[in-house]
Amino acid sequence: MGELGVNHFLFLSAALFIIGMMGVLVRRNLIIIFMCVELMMNAVNLTLVAFAWESNTMNGQSFALFTIAVAAAEAAVGLAIIMALSRRQSTIDADEIRSLRD
């Protein structure tokens, strides 16, 4: 059995990003869309760490920690917006929410 290289991690990251992108494009539930955006951010973190592991520097890990902090802030704000929309219109279906379009 061979050793895991950076290509294996990049393939996994690309697969996770594509799954997240398809979830954002196909789903209409705001919670599911939100989870898919988080999945895409985790795929980017995996790519950053894989490249940092290949080059033996700490730059990728520091960027990954920064994106994790941004994802935590985005999760708090995003869930608050979703809760406010669901209370106002009693739905979390993206097609039925029209208040932000006008």
Distance, first to last CA: 58 Å
Q: What is the CATH first-level class name?
A: Mainly Alpha
**Total number of domains:** 1
The number of E-state strands comes to 0
The ordered string of helix (H) and strand (E) elements is HHH
Give the biggest sheet.
none
Number of helices: 3
- Round the mean pLDDT to the nearest integer and report it: 87
The residue fraction in helices comes out at over 70%
The unreliable regions are: none
Please name the CATH topology: Helix Hairpins
The CATH architecture is: Orthogonal Bundle
Structural class determined from secondary elements: mainly alpha
General description of the model:
With 102 residues, the protein is mostly helical. It has a single domain (7-89), classed as Helix Hairpins (Orthogonal Bundle). It is 76% helix and 0% strand. The chain has three helices and no strands. It has helices at 6-26, 30-55, 59-89. It is elongated and about 50 Å long.
